[in-house]
Write a structure and sequence with these properties.
The complex is a heterodimer.
Chain A: E1 5-7, E2 10-13, E3 19-24, E4 31-38, E5 42-50, E6 53-57, E7 64-68, E8 74-78, E9 87-94, E10 102-103, E11 107-111
Parallel strand pairs in A: 2-11
Antiparallel strand pairs in A: 1-3, 3-8, 4-5, 4-9, 5-6, 7-8, 9-10, 9-11
Chain B: E1 3-5, E2 10-14, E3 19-21, E4 24-26, E5 32-39, E6 46-52, E7 60-61, E8 64-69, E9 74-79, E10 88-96, E11 105-106, E12 110-115
Parallel strand pairs in B: 2-12
Antiparallel strand pairs in B: 1-4, 3-9, 5-6, 5-10, 7-8, 8-9, 10-11, 10-12
The chains are: A mainly beta, B mainly beta.
């Protein structure tokens, strides 16, 4: 059974650019969450999608957005990149959220 | 707002020994779930164990067990017979259901090193 797949694994972007990260959840999982992980702020929740609808959103500026497709695959977009957006972005999926989420290996974004 | 606190930034343990990682949380909710996740250097977060707040019985998964004290809002993780492969960063996490489905609130993590 395939796990949560995130692409790309590594990304280097220039300040001011935009970036799109992709996440393919485990087959059958309809809830997909995104997190930002940095050494200073730790793990912070970005947003959660279920059946193409955003159900929850964290405290991030509007430059951070996401979407979910009908096959449950999800993307997150960051526009007008800032140096502080450099982080590991983790995607997680779940069939039953109260059982916990399965995480992908993340996308390491570096903004220069 | 809910918060999760892990007061031990780093810990070490000898192989085959037992170690306990601490976690406290703050909430006024009654319906929530608690989790411990492990993040090895490979960076993939792995679910170690989960606990439902309405269950008084402490969860166990092989060498991993928790001490859940609801009134004290404490959720510690005990690792028995520590193995080298247990070396990782461990995160305690809280999720309120149903309102905050998918929104895990994490502690700052505890780096555990298992020494041979």
């Amino acid at each position: 059974k395939a796990g949560v797949t995130q692409t790309p694994r590594y990304l280097i972007k220039t300040r001011g650019q935009q970036v799109t990260l992709s996440c393919s959840p485990i087959s059958g999982h309809r809830s997909v969450s995104w997190y930002q992980q940095t050494p200073g702020q730790g793990l912070q929740f970005l947003f959660e999608y279920f059946s193409e609808t955003q159900r929850n959103k964290g405290n991030f500026p509007g430059r951070f957005s996401g979407r979910q497709f009908s096959n449950s695959r999800s993307e997150m977009n960051v526009s007008t990149l800032e140096l502080g957006d450099s982080a590991l972005y983790l995607c997680a999926s779940s069939l039953y959220p109260h059982y916990g989420y399965t995480f992908g290996s993340g996308t390491r974004l570096t903004v220069v | 707002a809910q918060t999760v606190t892990q007061s031990q930034p780093e810990m070490s343990v000898q192989e085959a020994e037992t170690v306990t990682l601490s976690c406290t949380y703050d909430t006024s909710e009654n319906n929530y779930y608690l989790f411990w996740y492990k993040q090895p250097p490979s960076r993939q977060m792995i679910l170690v164990i989960r606990q439902e707040a309405y269950k008084q019985q402490n969860a166990t998964e092989n060498r991993f067990s928790v001490n859940f004290q609801k009134a004290a809002k404490s959720f510690s993780l005990k690792i028995s017979d520590s193995q080298l492969g247990d070396t990782a960063m461990y995160f305690c996490a809280f999720m309120k259901l149903p309102d905050d489905t998918g929104k895990l609130i994490f502690g700052q993590g505890t780096t555990l090193q298992v020494k041979p």
